[in-house]
Structures are given as C-alpha cells and as structure tokens.
Amino acid sequence: METCIFCKIANGEIPAATLYEDEDFRVILDLGPASKGHSLIIPKSHVANIYEIPDELAAKAMLLAKKMAGKLTDALDCDGFNIVQNNGEAAGQTVFHFHMHLIPRYKDDHAGV
Ligand code: 5GP
Ligand code: ZN
C-alpha cells in the first residue's frame, strides 16, 4: 500500500514517537491524543481491519496490548485503561490500516472514548 500513512509510519519511512518496535509491530504516540499517553499499536504489514488480520497476528497484537497497558500504567500512574479498535467508517475508523488504541484513563479526565 504505497499511499497508506500507517504503512509508512510502521515501517519507519515517516518518523513517529515510537514507544516499542518489534518485527511485526510499531507502537507510537497518537498525534491527536484523547488522554496523556494515548498510543497506537500498528502492524507493519497492511491489513485494513479486524476482518482481514490473520489470526496469529491478531493474537500477537492482543498480547502486545496487554504488555503495553501494563507498561503505560506503571509509567503514567493512570487510574484505568481503554483499549479500542475501530472497524469501518460507521464505527469511527479514519485510517484504514488496522490499529489498536491504548488509552490511559485518569480519574475525572472526561476523555470520552
Ligand atoms: P481511527 O479513528 O482510525 O480509529 O484512529 C486513527 C488515529 O490515528 C486517530 O486517533 C489519529 O489521531 C491518529 N493519527 C492519524 N494520523 C496520524 C499520524 O500521522 N501520526 C500519528 N501519530 N497518529 C495519527
Ligand atoms: Zn497500511
């Protein structure tokens, strides 16, 4: 996908604030954060949504979400955590390359996710 912004970010062609990287994923800070520490798990291979992601990669993404939620909670001392994953325009997806939102929550933050 030559024109996909998350392909370029995940594969390092466009710089982004990276919290974690391995052979399958990059985790970056969201450009328009809903709360302090709002991050995105982005696979390096292009899949548009949950319907397209291979099972093995989906399982790895969930394990990484668990690991990152723990690390972010320790680092930021947040009070709660949302993990959000949008599929399709009607569900609020704006970038059509699968990603998971990691959203630290703070008491009375009104982050509204
Ligand atoms: P969606 O609405 O598709 O679930 O989420 C897309 C997310 O990607 C939004 O939260 C938006 O702020 C974020 N985003 C869009 N473009 C960029 C970008 O170029 N860099 C970063 N770091 N985040 C982006
Ligand atoms: Zn892509």
TrEMBL record:
A motif (Histidine triad motif) lies at residues 97-101. Residues 5-112 form the HIT domain. It comes from the Bacteria. This is HIT family protein.
